[in-house]
Amino acid sequence: MTVPPVPTTLPPVPAAPPVKRHHWIVRLTHWMTFVLLAGMIMSGLQIYGAYARFGERDGPYYVNAFEDHAFPTWSRLGGWLAGGLNWHFTLMWPLVAGGFLYLSYLALSGEWRSLLFRPRDIHGAVEMQKYYLRLRKDHPPQGKHNPLQKLAYTFIILLGVLSVLTGFAIYKPTQLSWLTALFGGFQAARYWHFWAVWIFTAFLIVHVILVFVVDPASLRAMISGWYRGRFPSHD
Amino acid sequence: MIDRRAFLRLAAGAGSASLAAACGWDGGNAVRPLLLDVSRLNDWVGEKILFSKTRLAPQYDIAERTARLPAYFISPTMPVLQNPSAWRLQVSGLVRRPLSLSIDELQAMPRTTYTVKHHCVEGWSAIATWHGVPMSAIAERCGMLPQARYVRFDSFDSGYMNGWDLASAMHPQTILAYGMNDNPLPESHGAPLRLYSPTKLGYKMTKYLVSVTFTAERPGGYWEDQGYPWFGGV
């Protein structure tokens, strides 16, 4: 048996062929939601300033780190209460329309299977968490998204639905009094609507950090649709 | 390529939105008219889709009343009648019989009492009891004409006024209130007579009333003309 000679120059590593990862509807609604949600949060902070607490007029008031807090001007949209309301009640239309478009796409394309966290994903989520905590050496096998990603994306979609429903409960507490009562009344609905802001913000921060730390190529994929990164086998 | 272009448009939008935010942007001359157009669309949705002529606002126990319900007026000092006995409510416009009603005459008409939640556009809420005559009884007494589509409410508080759609004005819980929490209406809450309805935001409920006018054209409103939602339903 002869040992083949060591080549003096290494052949170039064949580039992994790009994979199509995101449909245009997903990319469009992803970036739409980013811009519109930013506008909703900023106009929401403007509206919040008009009565910066939660609870009936006599109190007691709900626990709130931002009680009577005025958010900085750069974080608000609208200039005054009416301006904030008009932005909020305008942006809600394309935001909800985008949400419907996205959910319809997930449902009709079957793509929901790779996103929806189901009971059978619990085991995989635990394994994935072990891997991240260095309790497990090898990356557990996965499909398009790992079970922790499914959990995060399922949760954030539910948070979006909750935001819309609490929004309606605040918008029409008399006509939709059953919905408002479901959230514990007008002030409680305002409270949950406000909480959603901070959960969205926390999600955004973690989401962006993970993109850049774990897989920067996924940002390009969310723009062009094509993925050229380290984890093509996951598709 | 179209998607890339669409994305760049969106990114440009995001950039301008955050720039604009730095100055508390209300939309400026370019966007503000669009926001107000959408506000008119929302008025239509609020009136034609979400509002019901028969659905009643939930009522509360008098034990749940809020101790202190905030009140405001736009005049520099609280509007007070110099001669309360000379006060009359003028009812006119598209009616068969224009009326001039004293408080005694209003109190002799059918009376509605309810304990409901007050919703302010600012976000606070409070519970109080209101006593008054239903607007529908006023419309009946003056012989409202079928051409009437809106109602205009005027006050003696420095020209504060509101315009209402007829359906909201004829809702069974829309009243001209002369009493609050089992007492005569206090001056701070619009004595001697104010408009009240648990289907509207606080700023729609004209206080210190002097006249009710049935119209075919849509009247504006003090805050509404400055950009607040015209329908203002809850």
Characterise this structure.
The complex is a heterodimer of chains A (235) and B (234). By secondary structure, chain A is mainly alpha-helical. Among the domains of chain A are: 21-52 and 73-110; 115-119 and 146-223. Helices cover 57% and strands 2% of the residues of chain A. Chain A is built from 7 helices and 2 strands. In chain A, strands 1-2 form a two-stranded antiparallel ribbon. The longest helix of chain A is centred in the middle third of the chain and has 29 residues, at 81-109. The two termini of chain A are 40 Å apart. With 234 residues, chain B is of the alpha+beta class. Chain B folds into 2 domains: 2-47; 58-226, Oxidoreductase, molybdopterin-binding domain (Sulfite Oxidase, Chain A, domain 2). Chain B contains 5 helices and 10 strands, in the order ααββαββαββαββββ. In chain B, the strands form 2 sheets. Chain B has a 5-stranded mixed beta sheet with strand order 2-1-10-5-6. In chain B, strands 3, 4, 7, 8 and 9 form a 5-stranded antiparallel beta sheet that branches. The termini of chain B are far apart. Chains A and B meet through α1, α2 and α6 of A and α1, α2 and β4 of B.
